[in-house]
Amino acid sequence: xTASLSKIITGLILAFHLFITGHNAWLMYSETGxxxxxxxxxxxxxxxxxxxxxxxxxxRIFGFIYFIAVLFELAMKLxxxxxxxGQVFGAVFIxxx
Length: 97
Fold this sequence. Notes:
Blueprint: H1 3-30, H2 41-56, H3 60-80, H4 84-89
Helix pairs in contact: 1-2, 2-3
C-alpha cells in the first residue's frame, strides 16, 4: 500500500470517527431526559477519535493505544455486558446486541 493511499484511508476513518461522535453527541444531548451513564458515550467516542487522530499523524504509540482501547471495549462487552457499566463502556464503537 502506498503512503498516499494509507493517508486517504486513515483520513476517511477519521472522518467516520468525527461523524459518528458528532451524531451520537447530538442524539444524547439534544433530548432533555434524565442524566444517565449513557451520556458518557460521546465523550468516550471523542477519546477514540483523538487517539485515531494520533494515528493519522503517524505517531506509532497511538496505534498501540488504539489497540488497547479496542481490547478494553471488547473486554467490557464480554465480561460486563449485562450491567450498565458494561453497556456504556462496551458499546463505544461496537453496537449493543
